[in-house]
Amino acid sequence: MTQTEITAPVVDEVPGPPHRRSLLEKLFELRARQSTIGREVRGGVTTFVAMAYIVLLNPLILGASADITGARLSAAQVTTATALAAAVMTVLMGLVGNAPLALAAGLGINGIVAFQMAPSMTWAQAFGLVVLEGVCIVLMAVSGVRERIMNAIPRPLKTAITVGIGLYIALVGLVSAGFVTRMPDSAQTTVPVRLGANGHLHGWPIVVFCFGLLLMIVLMARKVPGAVLISIGVATVLAVVLHEGFGVGGWGLTTPALPDHVVAAPDFGLFGHIDLFGGFASAGALAATVFLFTLVLSGFFDAMGTITSVSDEAGLSKNGKVPRMGRILLVDGAGAIAGGVTGSSPNTVFLESAAGVGEGARTGLASVVTGLLFAGTLLFTPLAGVVPAQAAAPALVVIGGMMVAQCRNIPWHDPDYTIPVFLTAALIPFTYSITNGVGAGLIAFVLIKIGRGKWREAGWLLSLLALVFAVYFAVDGVEALFR
Q: Could you tell me which residues come within 8 angstroms of residue 392 by beta carbon, excluding any fewer than 6 positions away?
């Protein structure tokens, strides 16, 4: 998205009664952010399409593990919980934060819940710790501590986070489409990943991905409105035709099959089944505290990186600060609480929000649209499985490339930032973790300032954060000392 597109003159694309437009204008400041109803709707739909996979993926991740009693979660219940939490929190973000940011069960964090916490406690106790995580983050947001931390991080490091996330979501798109795969024997080779399944591209699913990617590139180059959404839609139709008409398989997690039943009743069986403090008894006080610390740190900085990068891409940041940041952080923290109460794992701002921004989303109206579509999946869950990764992944690759363009704003000549920026941008995709990249960059930045005798420039807050991240990276070793 070029600056010219962002600042293009506003033209109302959806005519309507004056009182209706004025109400939307009052709620979402469309003209002030140089957007239109049409752009926001397109952006909201695009974000939903890009992240709808979470409705299917989250039940698979949480359902792949059993708790300490051997109990497993019902796929139908987790699906309902995932859609419900995403719908409520995304609409809330639109109305309260007025930002084009969608929330859903966080990838990576749900893995912590499923594979690290659940084997040591019951599901109710695990979701109880998730609620406590949300309470901690909300308290930090209400007190202003969270916003102070975000504002204390230097602008070049924030830009590096945007670049790292761009590389991250592009890699996620390439991997989810099967364009890039992990080497099975990567421990014995110098190449951990490769092109396609065996070093070559083959199969119709890859053709669908390449077709969708090339179509999206061409449409965006020609500045066609709705380029991302059009490309996803056309690629999905092609995938359905190949699967239903010619029996093509190998689609991975989501098969583009027309569902037998369009409507399915939601199952709210997990709602409210939480045990706030039982995990400390089941797993032990130290282990439960470590779990809680990991959840808070991951949720805090994953969201920080995503909010910063998506806001930058949308042109919302002013002097490195995002409007209504306090409200945005408050809603994000509440998302973790909602994730625990519903049984869907912590909800946080999704990187795929950048796909909607790429379609012109600039306000919370796009989030309201996305949230309402998630609400619709409560009844139309079978339709969520129609869009395969190969059709949606091109959006992640293209938007990721646009975010990497922020490299031009990094002062590479400044030795105080060169290595910290590189570590931040590189470790986010290499470790599949925003938190790891932010932590490594902050530690390196503070050490360089101290080493050059400029420790006052780092400040006590960043120095404290660097120490916290040092503990985070060494947490397994620290825990082992007390076993």
A: 49, 50, 52, 53, 176, 232
